[in-house]
Write a structure and sequence with these properties.
Elements lengths: L1 E5 L3 H12 L3 E6 L2 E3 L1 E6 L2 E6 L7 E6 L6 H7 L4 E9 L18 E10 L2 E14 L2 H7 L6 E4 L2 H22 L3 H7 L1 H17 L8 H10 L7 H7 L6 H9 L3 H15 L2
Helix pairs in contact: 4-6, 4-8, 4-10, 9-10
Length: about 270
């Protein structure tokens, strides 16, 4: 089974590393071309991995770029696809799946705390939990991997559950430029209203998240006070952000969420 990972950042770089370590054929493609080697700091363990050279077409392609780079990725995908290849986008959000409508897609979402700095992948905690749509090829890929992987028969709900948390806190943190703890202390009413709006919108798409509100609140109260979503960090650093994917998709269906989105778009346009 040949695997290609497109987007070797904190998520894709770590995933490629672990897939290679469990004896898969893995090639990696970044914005600057083929990536042949990565250094990983997995909590306290430091390791390096050599990847396989780019070689024709692949059985499975994991797309782990930021959403604002997807148009460029979509253009090159056909070059690496066989007739029965699977494409697995692992991005934050919901709206990006429309861009993959012409491919054989298996949906996925991931829980991981990792980032890339100076060419090194830093995985900051033991957390790794991949939810991916059940498929025979994916079962084969992960069968020898010591990774927490859920082969889901209800992937849309799994993705919306993550989106419920990340869209709420990425938006409010970026808007107020404050971490999770401050948001929960000072903007609890807005947190709850935002969650209610996402639950309402999910129902339009046939996903029932009505039992998830308490879980999200509890999760936010239990994570470190100064935790920041990557979107807030991107705003702080005046980088491109995923505001369209994380907030804009919901803003089309909620006046409340749109009020945050319009202001965040103004912030981003000022960069």
């Amino acid at each position: 089974m040949k695997i290609l990972v497109i987007g070797p950042g904190g998520v894709g770089g770590y995933l490629a590393y672990r897939l290679k370590k469990c004896d898969n054929f893995v090639s990696v493609l970044g914005s600057g071309g083929e990536v042949k080697k990565l250094k990983i700091k997995d909590v306290d363990k430091v390791d390096e991995v050599d990847f396989d050279e780019l070689d024709g077409k692949y059985d499975i392609i994991f797309v782990t770029t930021k959403s604002y780079n997807l148009d460029d990725v979509i253009k090159i995908l056909p070059k690496y696809l066989k007739e029965d290849s699977i494409v697995v986008p692992i991005l934050n959000g919901i709206g990006h799946f429309e861009k993959f409508k012409d491919f054989n897609v298996k949906k996925a979402c991931i829980y991981i705390l990792s980032n890339k700095e100076n060419g090194i992948i830093y995985k900051k905690t033991p957390l790794f939990y991949l939810c991916v749509e059940d498929d025979e090829k994916l079962r084969e890929v992960f069968k020898n991997c010591d990774l927490k992987v859920k082969l889901s028969d209800n992937i849309d709900k799994d993705i919306w559950k993550k989106y419920l948390f990340i869209s709420t806190f990425a938006t409010l943190q970026s808007y107020y430029q404050k971490p999770t703890g401050w948001i929960m202390e000072n903007k609890r009413d807005e947190v709850e209203k935002f969650i209610d709006e996402v639950i309402r919108i999910a129902k339009i798409y046939g996903v029932d998240l009505s039992s998830e509100k308490e879980r999200v609140i509890k999760q936010a109260l239990n994570i470190p006070y100064n935790s920041k979503m990557s979107m807030q960090i991107d705003f702080e650093n005046k980088n491109k952000t995923e505001v369209d994917n994380l907030t804009g998709f919901l803003a089309k269906k909620s006046e409340f969420i749109n009020s945050f989105y319009e202001k965040l778009k103004t912030f981003q346009e000022a960069f």
